[in-house]
Amino acid sequence: MAKQTTDQTGFSDVAAGVDAVIPARKQSWLQYYLPSILIFIFAIVTWELFVRLFSIQEFLLPAPSAIYNSLSLNLNQLLKLGWFTTKEALGGFAIGCSLGILVALATARWTIATEALMPFAIAANSVPILAFAPILNNWFGVDNPVSKMAIVAVIVFFPVMINTVRGLTLVDANALELMASYAANQYDVLFRLRVPNALPYIFNALKVAAALSMIGAIVSEYFGGNRSALGVYITQEAAQFRFANAWAAIILACIVGITLYLIVLTVERFAIPWHPSVRGEER
Amino acid sequence: MPPTVSIQNVSKLFNPGQANQVLALKEINLDILPGEFVSIIGPSGCGKSTLLRLIGDLTTPSSGAVLVNGKPAHQARLDQDYGMVFQAATLYEWRTVSKNVQLPLELKGIAKTERENRAKEMLALVELAGFENHHPWQLSGGMQQRVAIARALVTGPQLLLMDEPFGALDEMTRERMNQELHHIWEQTNKTAVFITHSIAEAVFLSTRVVVMSVRPGRITQVIDIDLPRHRDVTTREMTRYFELVNQGREALRRAEAGL
Amino acid sequence: MSETLTLPAPIITEKQGRFSRWWHGRSRFARQTISLIVLLLLLALAWEGLKFIGGDPWRPANNPFGIEHNPPFRFKIASDLNLPHLWQIFEAFGRESRRNGPPLIQVLAGAAFFTFREAFLGFAIGGLLGFGLGAIFAHSRVLERGFMPYVVASQTVPILAIAPMVIIWLKAGWLSVAIIAAYLTFFPVTINTLRGLRSVEGTAVELMHSYAASTWMTMWKLRFPAALPLIFTALKISATASVVGAIIGELPSGIRDGLGGAILNFNSYYISGPERLWATILITAFVGIFFYLLVSFVEYIVLRNRRRPE
What we know:
The complex is a heterotrimer of chains A (283), B (259) and C (310). With 283 residues, chain A is mainly alpha-helical. Chain A has helices spanning 11-19, 29-53, 64-73, 75-108, 111-125, 133-140, 145-169, 173-181, 186-220, 230-239, 243-271, 276-279. In chain A, helix 4 (75-108) packs across helix 11 and helix 10 runs antiparallel to helix 11. Chain A starts with 10 loop residues before the first helix and ends with a helix. Chain B has eight helices and ten strands. Helices cover 37% and strands 24% of the residues of chain B. Chain B starts with a strand and ends with a helix. Chain C has a domain at 104-302: MetI-like (MetI-like fold). At the B-C interface, strand 1, strand 4 and helix 2 of B face loops of C.
């Protein structure tokens, strides 16, 4: 029953493509990643040499060593800032994803409601949600992490909802007939067929949402935020051309984003071990 | 003896009143007695699948009535009087083989130990003992279809509805599956309605073969298969078997020509 | 037993009420348009309803009957500052954007055009770059394994943080903003190009081999057409992303001619006229949806002879 997941938002496609980056369980990680590790080392060395040989100033391009120094020097402060922003991202992720899944579950029972909701959701999904950041700052207060959570929640809500609806509705017609032939009631059809069928779609959306939530939190902090937030720190340092500091913070943000993604991926592997993408097929 | 399935003057109209209105079935009358194995063959689009779905109450007739075990098909579905097998095995990939077979029992709210025992029993019947904890994707197409048959049998229905269950299998596997299905039918004494494209398959398995024609779908001929009730490898070598296959082929040709 | 029994409807077809039958008689396009309008109306109703229950007191502009509505509650988010009346927002379009300035709609239309131009250029650059990377990766597993992790990691970098550096390198201007937009747009295209080019069946490739077709021919006659549906799916995400990218790019660059600049500007004058920021957001939403629909339209034209995926 594995089917291609071409959908209007395309998030499942992209997430499925991203999964291909992670080697199947049986492959050796070192062997798989050897080319990328070599490229990393090569790039860092070239970058460092480039900056040193041509004496590039920091406000143009900081050297990797300068970024590393800033990272190690400010690590305590950065971790504190990072944790503050991570909490915003996690809060928004939790609110947005649970609302997305709940709305999808609530509407999936009625074909008409789902069909009516989809064009709206797709339209809303192509709205630059970021533009709402100043409004939500005014609603909940600039310093209040809730305003950032709200932005993150709105950003992740639509992809999660759209994908969940698709997972709940794109059910094999035979499987539905089978349930009908057993005179199964609506709840059995929902929980024994539609929900398991939707899980791969939901996880694809959650993975995208995990990465989006950290970016969303940082970007929303640009419109003003608590002084102990990572996004505010990055903006300040960048505005004063202290790019080594800004980059150190950016790297921290990336690490958090990737970690969140990998956490969802790990949960996925335990939750749906039966799915082809988890089994390492259809690459 | 009252018929297990009684199809009374059934017509089925798709998209009534619209431009793409199609009369899929026209005035079908057919009684199927307990213990019979009835195959329905006909050209593509003759409505044989629709007929099977009418018996299973997965769709309703536009006029006429379908009775299963003497009651309306709808009640029979609610009472789980039949088990159904589709062309695609339609196993849930998130369930193990045993869990797939247990599905209809779960829906009836039967206790876990009994469910497991009965699934085990059924899997043994389709010769898949030991595969309980495998996942569907680990099985071949033929094995998956056997799981589907076990699932259809697990609630102990008297009636088995099969919609081209072996249509997607290769010839060798198909013959072996025919043998096994016959064996199960003989052992359990069920009534079976079987849709197929293959005349040879229909003759080998059935006590009666119903030939249908296309547009509108109607029954053009019913062939009694007067082979011995027990069938095995030697059946396919009998002269009478060949005669019946030829008779079926001739009937199908006429049905295709719309006679 | 020859009389016709009336049978209850099976659960497989939904119970068909009169509305349901009417509804399913409409075309898909009509159904979606109607539902979109209904949802927008419901949203507007909820908006004004919230203000009716918990907004600020309200009285009409010239008030011959002395009507004054005093809501029973005072919700913070429903105050006139936080949630202006819808008509105020629409009125704001016609009023001047600043003292003795042109009307807001004119300013915003110009800003929308400016931002759309940046977004479109970024979309084009990102699309080409994404396609190129995808095509290269599709040809070489080693390059894919070498670079793909960084392509993926690049999308966890908050681009707002990179924007200032890009602007220093390329000077503040709409080209640098387009580059920032491209950074957000290339990624989905890369991923889906790679998937699409690889999705071709083995036998189809063997058919091309049997005609002794060159790699190049196989690419253009087989792989690329096969990849198109997935590429368009990615381009639709990219269209939205490019608008987001253009707005983000404008923020730190000091460019004030686009929507990003307008958001910053009206945000700082929020107290004196919240409806202007709301109006800007509406236009921003419009630009995002417009670009999405534009790409969808091109997709429809290009793929009109293909089977629909569902």
